[in-house]
Design a protein that fits this description.
- The complex is a heterodimer of chains A (281) and B (353).
- With 281 residues, chain A is mostly helical.
- Chain A contains 13 helices and no strands.
- In chain A, α2 (22-40) packs antiparallel against α3 (51-74), α6 (97-128) runs antiparallel to α7 (136-163) and α7 runs parallel beside α13.
- The longest helix of chain A is centred in the middle third of the chain and has 32 residues, at 97-128.
- Chain A is globular, with a radius of gyration of 20 Å.
- The two termini of chain A are 21 Å apart.
- Helices cover 30% and strands 31% of the residues of chain B.
- In chain B, a hairpin with a 6-residue loop joins β1 (2-7) and β2.
- Chain B has helices spanning 46-50, 94-101, 123-126, 145-156, 161-169, 185-197, 215-230, 242-248, 266-272, 288-295, 319-328, 343-350; strands at residues 2-7, 14-19, 24-28, 35-39, 54-65, 68-79, 83-87, 109-114, 117-118, 130-133, 203-207, 234-238, 251-256, 259-264, 278-283, 300-306, 309-314, 333-339.
- Classes of the chains: A mainly alpha (281), B alpha+beta (353).
Chain lengths: 281, 353
């Protein structure tokens, strides 16, 4: 394994995304959305919410948006090059498949994390300048957790771009993934929950103790893990979610949830490497 | 080539002998018919020694997709410093073979070695000195020619200054900031050749290098190939353009329906197929005497007459004697054309259904 080859490939991915203005566009979009949520997000009062409330308001939006961004960034990175024909030359230049895939992952991860950092960071600074109660540590955790969520989807998209033989099918796969984690799984899990507990209690607005198996099942949905991670790690989010209908259980720790997200990243990256090694170009 | 004078041991006549150093020449004395052998003094030159060592060895290569066998038990060797032409009809398995040679696709069975190193197990080392031009040349469309080559130079560890020279050499010097996505097919193809020879590889693998090129581009690529050969580069080239292959290749391999049906020099293949040169002679007036004079010569396969024209198929060595026979029989030669057996004929014969 040669680090300079990996770095050249990573650099190439970054340059590509600077050139096609992707980084600027997505950063600006993240920043604007954060500002909008912070300023208009509360029905009770017009004007800037502090960072803690902004994070609570952003959590749902992030679980919808960041996966899309990560999937878009990586779904075609391998199959696109194979389909276009440039993978041939790359592989003939004595770059190994492992060097290529890790270089691509690092480059795209850099692009994604940089965009999240700049977009949410800039908005955070603007909000901080307008409110008195500023907790940079909480906001830092929010940015870090969002990067982790992005990397999970990046890793899954990378795997998808090695299993399909066409760019278009890989795109279909990526869209399906987004629906799976944002819509299908939550509905299925809630459905399962509804069959086992007294649903009428929800209607009365009570918080109820949900069984552990439901909480365990949610660990298989990275977007739920992300939301729970914000709840367990960030004070203001935690106090807001304590009044929600399904609070996070006490055995959810930040360490466990970060571990789960890291496991997603590692497992799918490993699967992508395994698949790419066996692929005919 | 060295020339030496030797004396016949029996009658002391001086005989001129010429050959490569180290070559053993068998002689017959013109004076006394004494037979003997003489070895030209000196070391065998490095060139003749290395041409026998294999640079690319493909052994028993088989690749199937589901129930379709694209390449079936193909074996061949490419020797150091030669140009090896790889021919076959569309869909015969040329590109599959080439891609397997570079481990872009994984063969089901068989071994491929480049410079003695197994491509499958030690791909990185094996491909270190290989330049490759794929059938479908593709670049990063939103980069310029120079930016593209620089990226490849980084990965190949080739000096970056080389990129500018190559771009000039391949007539792309004036493309400047133009993105490769806006290049014509021919320009992309030329840039593809530049990428293949970037870093001065000792082995070049070219898959249909003149596809999509105008005649000037074809000549440019061919000259480059010959220039690289002069530097001692081993070249493996697949092509449809048979005349071109015949012109530049030392040996050819012909693949048909996934099976390697022939591997030899063009002359060797012609000989195997018993293909012979054809001579067309036009004389001022035809007579049976002339026709018979030619027909009774040994080594003449067939004689066809049509008006004042004779079409003769004969052994290569008989050409001069045929002409002489026509003159002696009174034929006044007006026009003369000889046609060597072409690669096209060889190709057609080997790839017949």
């Amino acid at each position: 394994m040669q680090t300079n080859i990996i770095l050249s490939i990573a650099k190439k991915e970054i340059m590509d995304n600077i050139r096609n203005k992707w980084i600027i566009l997505v950063s600006v979009m993240f920043a604007l959305l954060t500002l909008v949520v912070s300023y208009f997000g509360s029905l009770a009062s017009r004007g800037w919410q502090d960072l803690g409330f902004t994070i609570s308001g952003m959590a749902n939006l992030v679980t919808f948006l960041v996966p899309i961004i990560a999937l878009m960034l990586a779904y075609a990175t391998i199959i696109g090059e194979i389909e276009r024909g440039s993978m041939n030359s790359l592989l003939s230049l004595s770059a190994t498949r492992f060097e290529i895939i890790i270089g691509k992952f690092l480059g795209l991860a850099g692009v994604l994390c940089f965009t999240i950092f700049i977009g949410f960071g800039a908005a955070g600074l603007m909000i901080a300048a307008n409110v008195s109660n500023v907790n940079y540590a909480d906001y830092g955790i929010f940015i870090g957790a969002t990067m982790l969520l992005g990397l999970v989807f990046l890793s899954v998209a990378l795997f998808f771009s090695t299993i399909f033989n066409k760019r278009s099918t890989a795109m279909g796969g990526a869209i399906f993934l987004w629906f799976l984690f944002n819509i299908i799984l939550p509905i299925v899990f809630i459905g399962l929950l509804a069959t086992t507990i007294d649903i009428t209690k929800f209607a009365q607005g009570n918080t109820i103790v949900v069984p552990d198996w439901y909480q365990a099942l949610n660990l298989f949905n990275p977007t739920s893990v992300y939301s729970s991670l914000l709840t367990t790690s960030i004070g203001p989010v935690s106090s807001m979610s304590a009044s929600s209908m399904i609070p996070a259980p006490s055995w959810y720790s930040s360490g466990l949830l970060i571990g789960v997200l890291l496991a997603w990243i590692i497992v799918f990256f490993a699967l992508a490497v395994w698949r790419f090694q066996r692929k005919d170009i | 080539m060295t020339t030496q004078l030797v004396k016949c041991p029996t009658c002391k006549t001086t005989i001129t002998v010429s050959g490569e150093p180290g070559e053993k020449i068998f002689l017959t004395c013109p004076q006394c018919n004494q037979k003997g052998a003489f070895t030209i003094p000196g070391e065998k030159s490095a060139k003749t020694m290395v041409t026998n060592s294999a640079t690319i060895e493909v052994n028993g290569l088989t690749k199937s997709y589901n129930h379709f066998t694209a390449v079936n038990n193909v074996s061949f060797t490419v020797k150091k410093g030669e140009i090896f032409g790889f021919l076959g009809p569309n869909g015969a398995g040329k590109t599959t073979t080439i891609k397997s040679m570079l481990d872009l696709i994984h063969a089901n069975t068989g071994t491929i070695k480049i410079n003695g190193i197994d491509v499958r197990t030690h791909g990185k080392e094996a491909k270190k000195n290989v330049g490759y031009m794929p059938e479908k040349v593709a670049f990063y469309d939103n980069l310029t020619a120079l930016q593209n080559l620089r990226f490849y130079a980084e990965i190949k560890h080739a000096p970056k200054e080389e990129c500018i020279h190559l771009i000039e050499e391949f007539g792309l010097g004036d493309t400047g900031k133009k993105r490769v996505g806006k290049f014509s097919k021919g320009m992309v193809q030329r840039l593809g050749m530049a990428r293949a020879i970037l870093g001065n590889p000792s082995i070049l693998i070219l898959d249909e290098p003149s596809g999509g090129l105008d005649p000037r581009g074809v000549v440019l690529i061919r000259d480059k190939i010959l220039e690289m050969k002069k530097k001692g580069t081993t070249i493996f080239v697949s092509s449809h353009i048979l005349s071109e292959i015949q012109e530049i290749c030392n040996r050819v391999g012909i693949i048909n329906k996934g099976v390697l049906v022939a591997q030899d020099t063009v002359e060797g293949l012609s000989k195997k197929l018993n293909l012979k040169p054809q001579i067309t002679v036009t004389i001022d007036s035809m007579s049976a005497k002339i026709e018979n004079a030619v027909k009774k010569l040994l080594g003449v396969d067939s004689v066809k007459t049509q008006g004042n024209t004779l079409e003769i198929v004969c052994d290569g060595a008989m050409k001069a004697k045929v002409i002489l026979a026509i003159s002696t029989a009174g034929g006044n030669i007006q026009n003369l054309q000889t046609k060597e057996p072409s690669l096209e004929e060889v190709f057609m014969r080997y790839t017949e259904a």
